[in-house]
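Lab channel / #folding
Pinned by the channel admin:
"Please post every new chain as: sequence first, then the structure tokens as a reply. Keep commentary short and put observations after the output so the thread stays searchable."

First post following the new format, from NK:
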Amino acid sequence: RKDLFGFEELQKQYLKCEQKYPNKADALLHVMAKQVNKEIKRNTPKHNEGYTGRERKPGTLRKSWKVQKPKKYKGGKIRVSRVYSADSVAHLIDLGHDIKPRGRGRKNRFVQSHFRYEKGKGAKGRVEGLHLRENALNKVNKAFDKGVQEMINELTKDIQV
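Reply from TO:
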């Protein structure tokens, strides 16, 4: 039996591409996550503007942003690389927060707990978030699309129909 149309050869070439794909995809994902992290660090305020809590060293939040290596989820179908902050106030500065009164006064209590507040009551205002992650992702998104296209072109350059 002879392969007249070259389908067997084509299938072998596709299998080679399939073997190379996971490493290249992980490498691209990690590079893009590093770019997002760099962009977040660039836009993070150094002197903790908008934060009135305990005294902190300048640059604590900026230095806390980290990149996690790509991981597989759902049986290897989805690859994810996380950009996160190890700082306890990062989500407050990134997403914004209500300014709540402090202390154990009668007006600040909620039912039995001294440290819980009724939602919306006693708020003195709101600090708008800087949306660091969202802005960085939007900025790097075009470079990601271009990187994916280049990766696909590189993987499929050996395939001849």
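NK: The mean pLDDT is 80.
TO: also worth noting, The first strand starts at residue 65 and ends at 67.
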